[in-house]
Amino acid sequence: MDHRVDRGTLLLEVLLGFGIFLTALLLAFGVFPNSAKATTLSRNYTIARALARDHLERELTKSYISMAPSATSEIKLVTNNGVQVEKNFEIDVAVVVLDDRGAGDPFDRKHIKVTVTWNLSSDSRREVFLESWATQ
Questions:
Q1: For the chain, how big is the Rg over CA atoms in Å?
Q2: What's the pTM?
Q3: pLDDT surpasses 80 at 27
Q4: Are 83 and 68 in contact (CB under 8 A)?
């Protein structure tokens, strides 16, 4: 008869378990930088869409005659990785009078396009635009 008693775990078993745990931990932490970058990008898109919507609505509330192109910029405080930074959003409002294709007769309609651009990094720019039409 074999009366062997298991007195504990081997060092090899402990090291193998620790290695599996570290691998899973490294994979889980590898996701966090990507999700932080996606959150920052999403937040900037949300701010840009809100600015474009505000400027488009502001332009549409004007009288037909006073609708005109404009360019401004707004600085917003955004949080990147827990640090508040100033982000510059450039807003361009384009107003084009639509004419009868080729005849040169203006319609009583204007095309309004609001474009908001901002720097994502030193070599990359993003933009959001909204457009609408106004009638006389």
A1: 29
A2: 0.72
A3: yes
A4: no
